[in-house]
Design brief:
Layout lengths: L6 E6 L3 H12 L4 E7 L2 H11 L3 E5 L7 H11 L6 E6 L5 H9 L3 E4 L4 H13 L6 H10 L10 H4 L2 H11 L4 H8 L3 H15 L4 H11 L6
Parallel strand pairs: 1-2, 1-3, 3-4, 4-5
Helix pairs in contact: 2-3, 3-4, 6-11, 8-10, 8-11, 9-10, 10-11
Pfam families: GerE, Response_reg
InterPro entries: CheY-like_superfamily, NreC/VraR/RcsB-like_REC, Sig_transdc_resp-reg_C-effctor, Sig_transdc_resp-reg_receiver, Tscrpt_reg_LuxR_C, WalR-like
Protein name: Response regulator transcription factor
Length: 221
């Protein structure tokens, strides 16, 4: 049986001690390997370009270029499969986190998270078929919802089943879990997810769910 190569990770944080601690935790896992470090957002963009990681752990607040701008730049210059970016923050209601998610980050992680949570978060976003901390993402999105605004045009283009899939995505279910919930095949779910992303104009599931909450249409049927 062929063993999959370890997930490649870049650490971006302006505190050396934080990077050292993260590296030690990740190095203990045989399926994870740290391939680069950066102390600023600008360095992170350069390191990611050279190291081509699968996942980036990105401190949201850094000097020179913060995690939001770095996320935008990394995703803008990625010509192949872009890395999945996890923004790291002290407070889960940090407005910087929401801006980073809108910029394309796949999820976020609290700095007080324990080692097991960190490792599972990296594996989760690498799999890319679920949200990282969906309840917190929901709370952030609801704070920024456009109260009273007319729904965007894409809402009317969603089918009933696509709306159902979107709600289950927002709940943090994986494709396999959605398939079981709806009693359909995984391939069918993938087709619906792809349609949701196309109609919302979202890069990934996180952005699609944020768009839905901002539009105030999470009760779509």
């Amino acid at each position: 049986m062929t063993t999959a190569p370890p997930l490649r990770i870049v650490l971006a944080d302006d505190e050396r001690m934080v990077r050292t601690a993260l590296r030690a935790i990740l190095a203990a896992e045989p399926d994870l390997t740290v391939v680069g470090e950066a102390a600023t957002g600008a360095e992170a963009v350069s390191v990611v370009r050279e190291a081509r990681p699968d996942v980036v752990l990105m401190d949201v607040r850094m000097p020179e270029v913060d995690g939001i701008r770095a996320t935008e730049r990394i995703l803008a210059v990625s010509t192949e499969q872009p890395p999945r970016i996890i923004v790291v923050t002290t407070f889960e209601n940090d407005s910087y986190v929401y801006d980073a998610l809108r910029a394309g980050a796949a999820g976020f992680l609290l700095k007080r998270a324990d080692a097991d949570t960190l490792v599972q978060a990296v594996r989760l976003v690498a799999r890319s078929d679920t949200l990282l901390f969906p309840s917190a993402v929901r709370a952030l999105a609801e704070e920024h919802a456009r109260a009273g605004a007319a729904p965007p045009a894409w809402v009317a283009r969603l089918t009933g089943r696509e709306g159902e899939v979107l709600r289950l995505m927002a709940a943090g279910l994986t494709n396999a879990e959605i398939a079981r919930r709806l009693a359909v095949g995984p391939a069918t779910v993938k087709t619906h997810v792809a349609a949701v992303l196309a109609k919302t104009g979202a890069r990934d599931r996180t952005q699609a769910v944020i768009a839905a909450y901002e539009a105030g249409v999470m009760n779509i049927r």
